[in-house]
Amino acid sequence: MVLFYSVVSIMIFGYHYMKKRSNIISVKGLTKKFKNFIAVDGITFNVKRGELFAFLGPNGAGKSTTIKMLTTLLDPTTGDVKINNLSLKDKDAVRHSFGIVFQDPSLDDDLTAYENLYFHCLLYGIPKDIMAKRIEELLVFVELWDRRKTLVKKFSGGMKRRLEIARGLLHHPKILFLDEPTLGLDPQTRNHTWEYIRNVNKKEQMTVFFTTHYMEEAEKIADRIAIIDNGRIIAQGTSKQLKKISKTKTLEEAFLSLTGHEIREESASPLSAMRQRRMMRH
Amino acid sequence: MNTIYALWLRQVKKYFRSKSRIIGSLGQPVLFLVAFGFGFGPIYQKAGGGNYIDFLAPGIILMSVLMTAMFSGIDIIWDRQFGFLKETLAAPVSRMEIVLGKTLGAATVALFQGVIVFILSMLIGFRPQSVLAIIPAFGFSFLVAILFSSLGTAIASLLEDMQGFQLIMNFLVMPIIFLSGAYFPLDGLPRGMEIVTRLNPLSYGVDGLRGALSGVYAYNPRLDFIVLAAVATILLLVGSYLFSKIQI
User: Which one of B48, B62, B196, B234 has the minimum C-beta count within 10 Å?
Assistant: First the structure.
């Protein structure tokens, strides 16, 4: 009897462990070409359930294009992608699986905070009986409940970001995509934003896939990091592993050693120059 | 249905919140009503045409409906530039539903604009043949609104900048209005111009609305309805197809 229960317990534990550690995002040879320009060049990576995964790279590296493909906004040129075990061809089911916070604001400024969330609920078919409760829950979570009736155009950048995060979480997605979520925010608001995201990751066991070109963010927040440069993944692993393979002490040094340039140097240089190089390469 | 309702509601809410938009868009129709109505009125009467305001008002009402409906396409370009379109496109909803919601919202707003011009026309002397005539008049106006909202959506789906959209709209709007019989009767026109007016879907809208309000049709109400419904359906399908091709 004891043996039976032990076996069953191990099987249940094993099942949950395997499920938890299984891949929720699986990408193989993903490429995006725009005429003669290759934005994303045959990238391959996996993201495990419940993981905080960072895409680290300079501006124009292909981070946003990758997110657009993973979120069905852009059709890949080639490659195989599975989101929550679903093919990208099954667009509606894939779209139900994720929430997204875009790099640029995507709220309707002429609507109130509450109305923005209400419209999202309607678009995602959230039942009416739980809609109001869910909106309240999330507005409280991002500390905007008192400002629910304010038009979004009167919000600061940080408040808009928080509202977008709340909106991305409304339909209980399995994955939250964040495209440079803290870009343009002051350090205090950045810290707050990451606090919310970490809380969600823990509380709802939600996978978080984010792009950033801030080294310290990737190092502090992510469980694993993929370094992307000129449309290609140069290396991936934990911050520790990246330092180990590049035989460096900091992530910044690791980035320099792996890509041959600093991240700031690239972001400061003209985007067109970088694109030019990439076109010449092919 | 939720998607259609959400996008319809968004259009309507935004319209009623923008008082300046409501008032501003009335400027041109009111100017045309007063200037053309009173300016050409005596000549029209002398030529045996009757009360020119009664003739002109349906044309001005539809001009207002058409302009509001067609320029609603700019919302798509606006949403694309300022991000809201991404939120809609990333949602698990069909592109057809999005276009339907947007088109119905724009048509409702355009219809409302038409109602305001109708009331203003009555204030300066326009009188419909009966109160019941308002029902088919609404029907024809709504069809015109759907038709030109769909055309606005189709054109906006192909463009990314607002200036380009406005240029194309200005290029299209004036000929469509002038060659529809909105300002002058269509009988006795030279052959070439008659063909052009027959090919213009707004001619059937103007005839339908004028006929409903005055009781006198130049064509035939059934033909007006069939042409408007058919062209609106085709443009709605074309608009949906072009919208579905948008990639951000």
Answer: B48
Q: Is B14 on the interface with A (CB under 8 A)?
A: yes
Q: Note whether residue A4 is domain-resident.
A: no
Place of tokens 């690791």: A254
**End-to-end C-alpha distance for chain A, whole angstroms:** 65
- ipTM summary value: 0.82
How far apart CA A279 and CA B15 sit, in angstroms, is 46
**A47 in any annotated domain:** yes
| Domain presence at residue A145 | yes
Structurally, how many domains does chain A consist of? 1
Domain that residue A180 falls in:
23-281
Shortest Cα distance, chain A CAs vs residue B88, angstroms: 8
Where do the structural domains in chain B lie, given as residue ranges? 2-244
Residues in chain A within 8 Å Cβ distance of B89: 73
Give the tens place of pLDDT for each residue, B71-86: 998 989 999 888 889 8
Between strands A23-34 and A78-83, the pairing is antiparallel
Q: By C-alpha distance, which of B137, B87, B116 is closest to B16? A: B116
Give the mean model confidence (pLDDT) for residues A23-40.
Answer: 94
Amino acid at A77: T
CATH number for the domain that contains residue A265? 3.40.50.300
User: Which among B44, B61, B66, B63 has a CA at the least distance from the CA of B185?
Assistant: B44
Q: Is A26 on the interface with B (CB under 8 A)?
A: no
Residue A154 lies in a domain: yes
Q: What is the pLDDT of residues A194-250, one digit of tens each?
A: 888 898 898 888 999 999 988 988 999 999 999 999 999 999 999 999 999 999 999
Strand pairing class (A98-101; A52-56): unpaired
